[in-house]
UniProtKB/TrEMBL annotation:
UniProt keyword terms in alphabetical order: Lyase, Metal-binding
Family matches, as SUPFAM superfamilies: Phosphoenolpyruvate/pyruvate domain (SSF51621)
Listed name of the protein: Isocitrate lyase
Ranges that cross the membrane: none
InterPro entries linked to this entry: ICL/PEPM (IPR039556), Isocitrate_lyase (IPR006254), Pyrv/PenolPyrv_kinase-like_dom (IPR015813), Pyrv_kinase-like_dom_sf (IPR040442)
Molecular function as annotated in GO: lyase activity
Matches recorded under Pfam families: ICL
Reaction(s) this enzyme catalyzes, per UniProt: D-threo-isocitrate = glyoxylate + succinate
Source superkingdom: Bacteria
Length: 531
């Protein structure tokens, strides 16, 4: 017996015990329960954490089973993404949502657009999680509502075959609710602040929280300069804070993604505390750039001196008070960061790189896996990369190593449209097409995401509409390039009243008021023009 049928039977039993005094229909109760499967954000977090853990195990067994997501900055965007996934791919398996701190800062702050520097309101993050799941739950209710209306029509027509087919869709309905990987930046303060925000995010529905090892009040976008990292002890305290939040709220298999920005971060705000040679603090300090000194005469007023490698080291300090790391130490620091995070409670890694290069990523992951064999990554397929130029240059470099004739190409001009039909460009596009599959297989990437794609698609589609509508095409600019395509591609949103919930409202009015219900979906509803 399906959950829908179980709920209908239970409701009927309850109503019978009340002598039908409530005037409530048991099937309508079962329908409303089906349309509101998840009663709270914690229900969602527990449900999606289980999904994510199963996906991680599937990837460990077969790297072809990697997962993907797109960053969404509004509940409607996330909803339309999942509706499209169900329409085009039939299954939501392995497809998540990503919540980007960059897009929260740029699009959701009450201060207006902000850079990705943790200056936005911290509760905007948990607020967006709640909003995304509100829209995804509404997508469930809308789709099921359509099935219920079809079921009623089949019954009214006496078509038992159609009724059974529709009932099967209801009984085996696949929810739009999927895991969200949610960006908590560097924790928005100390470890207590991190814990409090993590709790709010989990209560909103987050089963997976991503946290980075930058200084909270110096945080920078991973693709900008000036990044400052913290000693491992500071970062691990925040990882523990997130784990405590999961456990307190009963999300025992919640997932933590530990992000390291060390590859591009050349600065630290503080020298790590160390108690003995070779401990974590000592290893962190061993990467400091500076000069060894032999006497106090070599130390100026205000200089800091650290004992490292059995010698006195005077670290290089900038006028800002920040300390520099040795040039070229980034990859070694990344490997240490990742191993340390996995050994102290993190589940997944995020290595922020400056380019999408499978070999570079694999080189670091292979070193990590020498210590933690099942280490795996969440990877940012970032719009900050010039994918076209990067891959064309990678192909050119590979061909040069293979002694192929590359005289027809100029490395710094490869973005040019004149190369678009060239063999080099075709090979580059082929590598871009298979990048996720290749990196999942060769570089330990479990989850591929694009942080802010819908930021760019919104800008691009708006630009195209403005160009046409305010230009010579006028209204045809909208009709030909938006509405006609919506109709022919079967975009559900073309019936925008239905998408906004008008039909669900009519269903409820009928439940509540019967024949007296004043419904919106009558003959004069212009949405009927769309079939």
């Amino acid at each position: 017996m399906s959950q829908y049928q179980t709920d209908r039977t239970a409701a009927q039993s309850l109503l019978d015990s009340q002598g039908q005094s409530w005037g409530v229909n048991a099937e309508n109760v079962a329908r409303m329960k089906a349309q509101n499967r998840f009663q709270s954000g914690l229900d969602i977090a527990r449900y999606t954490a289980k999904i994510m853990r199963e996906d991680m195990a599937a990837y460990d067994a077969d790297p072809a089973q990697y997962t993907q997501s797109l960053g969404c900055w509004h509940g409607f965007i996330g909803q339309q993404k999942m509706i499209a996934i169900k329409k085009h791919l039939t299954s939501t398996k392995g497809r998540y949502l990503y919540l980007s701190g960059w897009m929260v800062a740029a699009l959701r702050s009450e201060f207006g657009p902000l850079p990705d520097q943790s200056m936005h309101e911290k509760t905007a993050v948990s607020g967006l999680i709640e909003e995304l799941y509100t829209f995804l739950r509404q997508a469930d209710a809308r789709e099921l509502g359509g099935y219920f209306r079809e079921l009623d029509k089949a019954r009214a027509a006496g078509d038992s075959a159609a009724e059974a087919k529709i009932q099967d869709k209801i009984d085996n309905f696949q929810t739009h609710i999927v895991p969200i990987i949610a960006d908590i930046d560097a924790g928005f303060g100390n470890e207590e602040a991190t814990y409090l925000l993590a709790k709010r995010m989990i209560e909103a529905g987050a089963c997976c929280i991503q946290i980075e090892n930058q200084v909270s009040d110096e945080k920078q976008c991973g693709h900008q300069d000036g990044k400052v990292t913290v000693p491992h002890a500071d970062f691990l305290a925040k990882i523990r804070a997130v784990r405590y939040a999961f456990l307190e709220l009963g999300v025992d298999d919640g997932v933590i993604v530990a992000r390291t920005d060390s590859l591009g971060a050349g600065l630290t705000k503080q020298i790590a505390v160390t108690s003995e040679p070779g401990d974590l603090g000592d290893m962190y300090n061993s990467f400091l750039d500076g000069d060894y000194v032999n006497s106090a005469d070599e130390i100026a007023n205000g200089d800091v001196v650290v004992k490292a490698n059995g010698k006195l080291l005077k670290p290089k300090r900038l006028p800002s008070g920040l300390f520099q790391f040795k040039p070229g130490s980034g990859e070694d620091r990344v490997v240490l960061d990742c191993i340390t995070s996995l050994q102290h409670g993190a589940d997944l890694l995020w290595i922020e790189t400056e380019k999408p290069h499978v070999g570079q990523i694999a080189g670091m992951v292979n070193r990590i896996r020498e210590v933690v064999p099942n280490a795996k990554l969440v990877y940012n397929n970032s719009p900050s990369f010039n994918w076209t130029l990067s891959f064309r240059q990678q192909v050119l470099d590979d061909w040069a190593e293979q002694s192929k004739d590359i005289s027809a190409y100029q490395r710094d001009q490869l973005m040019g449209a004149e190369y678009d039909d060239s063999p080099l460009a075709q090979e580059a596009d082929s590598r871009i097409r298979t990048f996720q599959r290749d990196a999942a297989r060769e570089a330990g990437i479990f989850h591929h995401l694009i942080t802010l794609p819908t930021y760019h698609t919104a800008a691009l589609s708006t630009d195209n509409l403005v160009k046409e509508y305010f230009g010579a095409e006028g209204m045809l600019g909208y009709v030909a390039n938006v509405q006609r395509k919506e109709i022919r591609q079967g975009i559900a949103c073309v019936k925008h009243q239905n998408m906004a919930g008008s039909d669900m409202g009519d269903d409820h009015k009928e439940y509540f008021s019967g024949d007296a219900a004043l419904k919106a979906a009558g003959e004069d509803n212009t949405m009927n023009q769309f079939g």
